Each structure stands twice: as C-alpha cells, then as structure tokens.
What does this fold into?
Amino acid sequence: MDTPQPSGTTKRRITLDLDRPLLTWGARPTVTIDGVGHPAQWGTGTWAVADDGSTRIGVSCFNRLWRFGAASSTVGDADGFAYRSGLLPLGAGRLTARRTTD
It folds into this structure.
C-alpha cells in the first residue's frame, strides 16, 4: 500500500473559477477530482492535480432537493477552468478549459 505524500508535494495546481448561477435557491458547488468529491465555494480557487494531466475534474451544484449543472473534463494541458451552470437549476453546466501563455 502506498503511503500518501505530505501536503505541498504536488507540483501542479490548476485554477477553477466557479460562477454562481442567477437562481441558486441555496445551491452550493461540489468539485470532484478523479471521482472524489470536495466541497467548494463560489469564486476562484486552486486544486492540486496529477502532473501527467490525466486527472478528471468535475463540478456540480446541489441544494437540499436535487443536484444539477454537472460538467466534467480531463485536465490535459489546461492551467485552469471556468464553470458556469445553466440559467435555471436544471440541466447540465459548462466547464471550459483555459490555457495561460507565458
């Protein structure tokens, strides 16, 4: 069994911009990294991912009644992602990759 590495040893981090939908009805975002869910907040945050770019990232919104706005993508060469849910708390969302150039 592999032992987990201590915090701060991951070399690659991505930025994730989570835009709040207009009609949230108390909805909160959830970020999934390789199928493991992490609670998140609206706004911009950074997340640790694997260096090889094979990490699958997903975002969805939930409130006390249902889950909506699910979107997912593979990290690849992207340095960050922007998430937008639909205008109404129904259907899928969009997760758009961004690549910064130096």
Q: What stands out?
A: The two ends are 39 Å apart (CA to CA).
